[in-house]
Design brief:
The chain is an alpha/beta fold and 428 residues long. It folds into two domains: 241 residues, Rossmann fold; 145 residues, no CATH class. The chain contains 14 helices and nine strands. Strands 1-2-3-5-4-6-7-8-9 form a nine-stranded mixed beta sheet, sandwiched between helices. β1 and β2 form a beta hairpin. α8 packs across α10, α9 crosses α10 and α11 packs antiparallel against α12. It is globular and about 65 Å long. The termini are far apart. About 4% of the residues have low confidence.
Length: 428
């Protein structure tokens, strides 16, 4: 074998030993304004590379002395020539660490994926918590800053998206920065107008059929009528789970029963799963804590979502409870103002600012464009869906019998094709 042959053979061996994909994305990310940390992560087959970056943000750019915090951003890279799905998470983005996490829009558009953890959640938290800097406008500013920095790399079209509170977040982001992205897809996103909005209770009273609603009411009454035998199980469950509360646990039991109708329609929707009056106590108890357990109302269970409770009380709103049909069986005298009592406690005083919801509703009805709103028919959050009649720039789709888990790929075929066609047309 002569020298030339050896050279050719070694060259081929070397060439095949190289990775099929190599990129300078890591160094490009490090050089971007605002980026203070870059870490390469494992990724599945849907993307070529994945990175965690920490993006330094001012708590409030208009008050620099208030300080800064570092915000987590997960970047799943496919190609510089591909569009971007921009996930404006409303809570923690812990799930985005998974190498196999792929948003359904990323699959539909064969796109890059960028997921931003919301300020004040999980690891995107300032050293000193000042709740006054947890506002929708400042959060939207976070998303704007990150987009401006990353758009120097990803210059194709961007679509923002989010689910539930993340859906609220992407709609608010569009309102504050209407020219940042080409399109917006918001899933099950409410626009509540008060801390106890008032539309959810009558909505629940009209969901599905009269027979189904009676099953819900009968279960709630049965759980309260059997308090003397079920409450000891409830109390033991709390002790074993090491849960604590801001109200007596007798009242927590009432709140679990009141929450049941909302939680059932939000996530389950099939009344065949409800125990009957003939079933034993333990079956009633197990069903109750499965659908609306006490951990939801506990100090421990709400620790990670305390920033959300502040935001709900300040700008985002929430829902109330209807008690009339259960009044004679409840220990609590009223459920009014329960949110502040149960979730905020005495240490956090917040007044609701209704103008944010007013402004967002007006924007969606008159100025929003290239926007998809997706809801489930049975999901109580749909009660607070915005009125977008008259705005041809917004497409609102409600899945028959759908819950809070409604997504594009779970829509009826005709609606799914329509939504996908709209998105692909906007993103061309």
């Amino acid at each position: 074998m002569n020298t030339l042959h050896r050279f050719l053979i070694y060259s081929l061996i070397f060439a095949y030993s190289l990775p099929l994909f190599s990129s300078d994305l890591h160094s490009k990310l490090e050089s971007l304004p605002g980026v203070v940390y870059v870490e390469e992560l494992k990724t599945g087959d849907s993307f070529n590379e994945k990175f965690l970056i920490l993006f330094e943000q001012y708590l409030d750019p208009s008050v620099p002395e208030a300080g800064k915090f570092r915000q987590r951003v997960f970047i799943s890279h496919k190609s510089y020539d591909a569009p971007v799905v921009y996930i404006t998470e409303g809570y923690s983005a812990d799930y985005a660490e998974s190498e196999n996490y792929v948003n359904e829009l990323s699959r539909i558009l064969d796109a890059n994926q960028i997921c931003v953890e919301h300020r004040y959640f999980s690891q995107s938290v300032p050293e000193d918590i000042d709740w006054s800097y947890l506002t929708t406008s400042l959060a939207a500013g976070d998303h704007h800053n990150i987009l401006v920095s990353l758009k120097s790399l990803y210059q194709k079209k961007w679509v923002s998206t989010g689910i539930s509170k993340g859906g609220q977040t992407c709609l608010l982001y569009q309102m504050y920065y209407p020219n940042d992205v080409t399109a917006t897809v918001a899933y099950v996103a409410p626009v509540a107008t008060a801390l106890e909005d008032g539309r959810h209770e009558p909505f629940i009273n009209n969901i599905s059929t009269k027979k189904d609603r009676k099953k819900i009411n009968d279960f709630q009454k049965e759980a309260l009528k059997r308090r003397s035998t079920i409450f000891p199980m409830f109390k033991q469950y709390i002790q074993l789970s090491k849960l604590s509360f801001r109200v007596p646990i007798e009242e927590v039991y009432d709140y679990c029963v009141l929450e049941y109708s909302f939680a059932f329609w939000q996530w389950i929707g099939n009344t065949d799963k409800i125990p009957s009056k003939k079933d034993p106590d333990n079956k009633i108890f197990q069903h109750l804590i499965t659908v609306s357990g006490p951990d939801y109302f506990s100090i421990e269970g709400s620790a990670d979502t305390k920033p959300f409770y502040y935001q709900a009380a300040k700008e985002l709103g929430y829902y109330g409870y209807q008690t009339e049909h259960l009044d004679e069986l409840l220990k609590i005298k009223t459920a009014k103002d329960y949110f502040k009592i149960v979730f905020l406690g005495k240490g956090l005083k917040v007044d609701f600012y209704k103008q944010t919801a007013i402004d967002l509703q007006k924007f969606l009805k008159t100025k929003a464009k290239n926007t998809i709103l997706i809801y489930g028919e049975f999901d109580p959050w749909t009660a607070a869906a915005p009125d977008v009649s008259g705005n041809n720039g917004v497409v609102k789709v409600v899945k028959p019998g759908g819950t809070h888990a409604t997504r594009i790929m779970s829509l009826p075929e005709k609606d799914k094709e329509m939504v996908v066609n709209f998105i692909k047309t906007w993103m061309k």
